[in-house]
Amino acid sequence: MRSDFSIRLVTHLHWIKKETFALDRDIYSYWTMFAVEEGRFTYRIEEQEGEAGFGSLVVCPPNTWFHRRTLEPLTFHFIHFTWDSEPSLEERRSLTGKLMITDIERLFSDYRYLRLLALEQDETALERKQHLVSDIWRLYELERNVPKEIGLNGMTTDIEIRKAAQFITANAFGPIDMKGLAFSLQLTPVQLTRRFRAAYGMTPSDYTTRLRLDKASKLLLETELSIDKIAQLCGYENGFYLSRIFRNKRGMPPSQYRSMPRV
Known about the structure:
Blueprint (H helix, E strand, L loop, with lengths): L6 E12 L6 E3 L3 E8 L2 E5 L2 E5 L3 E5 L4 E6 L3 E10 L5 H6 L2 E4 L3 H14 L5 H23 L1 H4 L8 H13 L6 H7 L4 H12 L3 H19 L4 H7 L5 H12 L3 H5 L5
Helix pairs in contact: 2-3, 5-8, 9-10
């Protein structure tokens, strides 16, 4: 499927803690997206059916019945849109139903700004909403087209694992007790690892390493700090250990990475 689709926003509404849908099914004249921020619901669109929660974009083509039922109070963005270039019949099938995004930090940010703009309908607000909706879509496309790196596998991010990812993100550059994290979520370490891998395509330890190396890469290019100091800022004991991990994961030692042209 081509990856150059561009969304054109028609309508955006933000629903907060919706207990039930007014109609258990509806049909729209535009493409429709339910971008779930909190809660869960079931859906059926043509042959596609399932359950959607945070990280899910549920997409329904125009003039198609959209069956839905809330499982928990639902906070979501209701979006009507069109495409700059209408998809073919085959592409339409692949764009229908539940689409997943795993980069929850980026998604949180887009949703936050959409919430702030939810009640505004002037031209400037609509332009900003257009930018945010396009960013969400491009994020989905990016993850779909680099599945080996992102680890996208279509599994729903459950609430405990979402909390685990948020905790790791907030504490990635210090010591993290993975066993303690698992117990705090009423999971065993094995359950945490298995469910985290199902949601994000990587273990919690791999997720932590990725965050640390992303920060290390940025510091290598943007500062003159020593490798030992960068290691300390990124959660590693010393520069030797950082260098070993960096070479293994990024394919070159930090010193070589630092010598790359800067922009």
